[in-house]
Design brief:
53% helix; 3 strands; 2 domains; mainly alpha
Amino acid sequence: MESHAGNDPDYVVGTDGRITFSPAGRAFYTAYFGYAGIDIRAIRTLADFERAGRAAFPFLFAFMGEHLRKGAQTLETRALLAIVEGDAAGLARIDRQLATRKGLTLIRGARDAPPARR
């Protein structure tokens, strides 16, 4: 019988303590641990995984920044990147942009248009 450690969809821990990664989990942790110089093939048990997580933690923000820069640059993504990079001024600017966007109304057709002024 196998169990999910913490119900994580990225890996399953067998009753023998061995860890098996899902395809998505393997892709993510290969990149994350690899960023810290850790070969995912050396991670065989939950204890190995936890040690690797502690060793990779100092690289987390740099890894996340690189990952976020590769994705679509939405306002939300840029806000996360500002947080990861500690850019308070950039975050404040993006926060204002998000607040402005929240106040806008999208008109998709005549039915959504505001009534005409007289």
